[in-house]
């Protein structure tokens, strides 16, 4: 692997984004553990299969670079705050049992995102902004709906996606996921610095939620939330060569 993986230092949150591989290489497939390979093989279509492979290979490679270990040898835990999971289909947020490194991954459309930090629990979300169909406006708080209605119609979809990425990042960081009603969260309006303004069903989580937008490709919106002290977000856009080598774009 070339050197697209920077070292995550205290007080930083690094976010890597990459486009899904077009052809799955043996080198990337070899990184998956038995459970990941089973899930990869279970996909019926090439597109979600490639997205899954890219997300989990990237997670393994950037994590291994921080730990100084073999990507294929990392054992991740999966934690669901709402159930114990099942032995044959573990699910939930990935974690490392013997490391303070916190991590999160997301994928949408043709893009994946991986976030790593030592600051505290982290949640990253990336969303395709060019999707079609009716917007699920019931996930917005009343003040967010009002802000959206004030925008020109041509700007509303991208603004909604920005709202949603911010909310999803928060819910992933706290571990609530979609068991919490997204409409109970109020985040800042698109065009303003990302911030969790209010959570109707609870007091501000402790440690506090720090919310940030993440630079990514123009047809996508991404956000990352970290529980704890404010930190510096460091974005990286990377790509895979045909033989599975991770590199910075040419």
According to CATH, what is the class? Alpha Beta
Low-confidence stretches: none
Query: How many runs of DSSP E, i.e. beta strands?
Result: 12
Oligomeric category: single chain
Please give the count of helices: 5
Report mean pLDDT, rounded to a whole number. 90
How far apart the termini lie comes to: 15 Å
Sequence of strands across the biggest β-sheet: 4-5-1-11-12
Corresponding CATH superfamily: 4'-phosphopantetheinyl transferase domain
Indicate the CATH topology: Ribosomal Protein L22, Chain A
Question: Architecture in CATH?
Answer: Alpha-Beta Complex
Please trace the helix and strand order, writing H or E for each element: EHHHEEEEEHHEEEEEE
Summarize the main sheet.
5 strands, mixed
Q: Structural class of the helix and strand makeup?
A: alpha+beta
Number of domains: 1
Radius of gyration: 18 Å
Provide the helix percentage. Answer: 25-40%
Amount of beta strand? 25-35%
Shape: globular
Please characterize this protein's 3D structure.
By secondary structure, the protein is of the alpha+beta class. It has one domain: 4'-phosphopantetheinyl transferase domain (Ribosomal Protein L22, Chain A, Alpha-Beta Complex). It has helices spanning 26-29, 34-42, 46-67, 142-149, 153-174; strands spanning 12-19, 77-79, 93-95, 102-108, 111-117, 122-128, 185-187, 196-199, 209-214, 220-227, 232-240, 246-247. The strands form four sheets. Strands 4-5-1-11-12 form a five-stranded mixed beta sheet, with helices on one face. Strands 6-10-9 form a three-stranded antiparallel beta sheet, covered by helices on one side. A two-stranded antiparallel ribbon has the order 2-3. Keywords: Transferase. One of its GO terms (molecular function) is holo-[acyl-carrier-protein] synthase activity. It comes from Streptomyces purpureus.
């Amino acid at each position: 692997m070339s050197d697209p993986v920077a070292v995550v230092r205290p007080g930083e949150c690094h976010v890597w984004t990459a486009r899904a591989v077009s052809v799955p290489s043996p080198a990337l497939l070899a990184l998956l553990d038995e459970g990941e390979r089973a899930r990869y093989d279970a996909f019926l279509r090439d597109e979600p299969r490639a997205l899954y492979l890219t997300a989990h290979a990237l997670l393994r490679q950037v994590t291994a670079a921080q730990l100084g270990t073999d990507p294929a040898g990392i054992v991740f835990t999966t934690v669901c705050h709402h159930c114990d999971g099942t032995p044959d289909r573990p699910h939930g947020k990935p974690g490392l049992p013997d490391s303070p490194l916190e991590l999160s991954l997301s994928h949408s459309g043709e893009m994946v995102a991986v976030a790593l930090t030592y600051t505290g629990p982290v949640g990253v979300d990336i969303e395709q902004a060019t999707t079609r169909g009716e917007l699920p406006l019931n996930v917005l708080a009343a003040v967010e709906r009002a802000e959206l209605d004030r925008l020109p119609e041509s700007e509303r979809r991208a603004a909604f996606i920005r709202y949603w990425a911010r909310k999803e990042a928060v819910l992933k960081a706290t571990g609530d996921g979609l068991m919490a009603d997204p409409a109970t969260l109020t985040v800042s309006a698109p065009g303003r610095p990302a911030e969790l303004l209010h959570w109707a069903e609870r007091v501000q989580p402790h440690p506090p939620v720090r919310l940030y937008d993440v630079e990514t490709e123009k047809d996508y919106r991404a956000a990352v939330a970290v529980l704890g002290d404010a930190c510096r977000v460091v974005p990286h856009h990377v790509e895979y060569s045909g033989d599975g080598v991770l590199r910075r774009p040419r």
